[in-house]
């Protein structure tokens, strides 16, 4: 059967070459580079805090060219985690050659995969990004400590998830590319992105750890924090 | 040789190559499994569970049964799934109001019965778990139940010789994964089907089986007063409702609201099936009633009528003594003796 599929693929081959795109992500908190445990940061509400865990899903990568034509990468789910250098290097597969001016992707995991039972690969529940008591993926997770928190040990815990209306936390991000990304045969261009974790608490919905030291279920605060972190990414560089 | 002859020859060679590849793929990569056909009475609605994504095999079911009865799935290898889900109690926990687990810890809800799960679209008393394949993740990782870390469990099973063999038989390789483990558990639980009670025999008009006068009276009362929520043939409509059970401050269980964060769902719990009800006491989400007559009395005069009480029971369900007795007799016909004694589901002793 595999051979049959291979043959069909060979016969339907149209000559469009499919290429890869490398995405490199770095994390900052406001003006400071993110360093787990050791660095102290401030939010807009005036709380000091540190971060011990920062992890989120990215999926549904799309590129758009100047004419508005959109192409999508092979379906893939990336679990990006500050504690893993490898997880911050994403290889997007199967983009056709061309010049693209816009990058889009989803922070989170498609709704349908939240109610389809256990998945494999990066979506395996072993990574602690799946709620056990209220099924569904945790789209993004930020944990740490803040003296303002009234939780045990002054911890802060934000597990952002929810896929059922009205509490839906997947967010699409669209970034304009200052210079076009050029994809051609034999060349793997690179996009450097930066994600700013300070946006989680400093956006339209201001989070004070004195009032909300954590949130770990679907609900309004999760929706608003997802609205906040929808703006955490910026494009740092395009390397063609 | 003519051009046509060459085309034919090339086509024939290609065909041989393709067919050869298919056969090689089957024997080299697929395990030798025996597919298992689930026998479901025709009168039932189609199952919610999608068997196309997890076809039943004898080897998969055997692996699932081994996992179900293996205490190694818990932190200190003391508690298996079957520890709380006892076959003679229709896979509920006989005589225990509240689930309990490793290190003497206690949960906060009653152990639900397990049967006819393939018609259920969500699980747990609050419907918080949305797929049969992911349901066991909750009791396995809950610190008050089996208290096990999922990654540690996968590693533990991977290191066990028996599981290497069982996973190979079911899936063609020894590799233990989350998805394989949960799908095997689902395969075993999918076979737990209960439609062999006296009620079923009467409905199927099997020769020589009839309700007694008392059972018939109870069936009439049931149809008039209970059947809109406990809807035959599953004896539940799989909805979540507030039945008027008084709130207990010491338990502080808000029910479905915990899942949806919506005050309209305050004190709503899943409507349980009434099949095998008389062998699976205690009753209610917190197991507060050990006797079915306490449940009758609650509907007759013991409800707490808060904002979210279900319209169908907000005026109570008046039941006189005769109706209660007859209802008891009818519920007794829902006990499926073949199911609770079926050797295919019985406990296996696992010591390695």
TrEMBL record, chain A:
Domain of life the protein comes from: Bacteria
Signal peptide: 1-18
Copper-binding protein MbnP-like domain boundaries: 19-212
Cited InterPro entries: MbnP-like_dom
Protein name per the record: Copper-binding protein MbnP-like domain-containing protein
Keywords attached to this entry: Signal
Pfam short name (any one): MbnP
From TrEMBL, chain B:
GO cellular component: periplasmic space
Entry comment on modification after translation: Binds 2 heme groups per subunit.
The keyword Transport belongs to this UniProt entry's keyword annotation: no
Cofactor binding remark: Binds 2 heme groups.
Record GO terms (molecular function): cytochrome-c peroxidase activity; electron transfer activity; heme binding; metal ion binding
Record: residues binding heme c 1: 81, 84-85
Keyword terms, alphabetized: Heme, Iron, Metal-binding, Oxidoreductase, Periplasm, Peroxidase, Signal
Keyword Heme appears in the UniProt entry: yes
Descriptive protein name: Cytochrome-c peroxidase
Binding site for heme c 2: 226, 229-230
Subcellular location: Periplasm
Named cofactor requirement(s): heme
Ranges annotated as spanning the membrane: none
Cytochrome c domain residues: 213-335
Superkingdom: Bacteria
Species of origin: Chitinophaga agri
PROSITE patterns, alphabetized: CYTC
